[in-house]
Amino acid sequence: MQNNPLWRWRGLNTDGESASGTLWAAHRTAVLFELQARKIIPLEIVRCRVNAAHWNAQRSTEMVAQLATLLQAGLSLSEGLTLLAEQHPSAQWQALLLALAEELRQGIAFSEALKQWPAVFPPLFVSMIRTGELTGKLDVCCLHLAMQQNAQHQLAMKVKKALRYPLIVLTVALLVVMAMLWFVLPEFAAIYQTFNTPLPALTRGVMAAANLLHQGLLPLLVCLSITLCMAKRYHHHARWQRLRQTLLLRVPVAGALVRGQKLSQIFTVLSLTQNAGIAFLQGLESVEETLENGWWREIIQDARLAITHGSPIWQALEKTTAFTPLCLQLIRTGEASGSLDSMLDNLSRYHREKTEQRAEDLATLLEPVMLLVTGIIIGTLVVAMYLPVFHLGDAISGMG
């Protein structure tokens, strides 16, 4: 279904009124058959371009949350999907929701219908929907799923913001420094050379750095471009992901943020699946499918394999060396006391709150530090450029 093209149609219904819409179909003939089944006379059928940016987790989460609200209000599943389709601003989402509603009317399970759209609904969505169908609590499962996805999205955005801020400030400072070294400093140097007077050591050092930048700028840009192209090309390569994640986790501040965000995601999914009645091994499969980085997926795979061979959960996680002692202790306690779901929920909440606090503290700390660093760099350049002015008086008097 996902590989089918999207078609926009316009026609007349049985009352002679104008009607229009979008639908997914393999070819134009299928669109004609579908419109004929709806008793619509087609006037125009145009193939539409599918915008991949509309298939994002935020839109999927909003749809699940709205669907949970409609189900709790007493609407049937197909009615809720049809109502959401009528109100959705995206044409391709309208066609998707109507296609899901039509498959439900044909007797296909909702989870099976969602499985046909892996780019829109991740495996965790399918697992939770299937659990809701089996337990008869589809509205509750949809609501918990939406809450979990929103919490993870907010946490990920806070972590990215905390890590992005120093990079932006340093990039701006670097651009300012390069502009001053490239355009401003040569003009001052030309003026000072006309007076034939020795320059201060600080000015000579800055000018030497500027000359070095002039000579090495082109090779530097070439190396930077090659590095960026290689990083983009091998972004999803397993070995590169493993190396990048290993190096990132060793960074003092960024490593703690990344580890906390990933542990929060892992334990949130495990808690969600445990509370929904899904087996722990199946929950680990859902965790593995929601992780984008190959390094973390391998860790979950190793833990799942060890548990399959009879190892306790806490020992299987301990062998991976990716989980903190607190995680292992609480999971061991949960296994022994039979309250594993509660311990997983506590770990999820702890890591989420801890990571949020670290991100906020880092942003608060970095703001004055980055301003101080930027001020020192730019201040040094300004002093280096204007320091020879104080020696110009002696030079001018000597010339006279």
Automatic annotation (TrEMBL):
Keyword Signal appears in the UniProt entry: no
Membrane-spanning segments: 167-192, 212-231, 362-387
Cellular location(s): Cell inner membrane
Source species, domain of life: Bacteria
Keyword Cytoplasm: no
BP GO annotations: protein secretion by the type II secretion system
Protein family per UniProt: Belongs to the GSP F family.
Protein name: PilC family type IV fimbrial assembly protein
